[in-house]
Specification:
Elements lengths: L2 H27 L26 H19 L8
Helix pairs in contact: 1-2
């Protein structure tokens, strides 16, 4: 698997974690619901469990960084020139 694919997978996992956290926050502050509900997102990818430790703000920032890294990688930018 190449670097671009790894970045895409991590970005997807970070976005899924954001959805989990936001839906959990909505459930805690919103009206009580009754009945069972299917999980909104699939199980977490074990490679990205560290994302579960991040706050919503940290996840949003991380997704932005991954987006920039992916664009840089696709444009041939590998490392910072000094």
């Amino acid at each position: 698997m190449d670097d671009a694919e790894l970045l895409r997978r991590e970005r997807r996992a970070a976005r899924e974690e954001l959805v989990r956290k936001r839906s959990r926050d909505d459930e805690q502050t919103g009206p009580a619901t009754t009945g069972s509900r299917l999980p909104l997102m699939p199980d977490r990818d074990d490679k990205f469990l560290r994302l579960a430790l991040m706050s919503v703000d940290e996840l949003e920032l991380h997704v932005e960084r991954l987006d920039r890294d992916l664009v840089d990688l696709e444009n041939g930018f590998d490392e910072i020139e000094e």
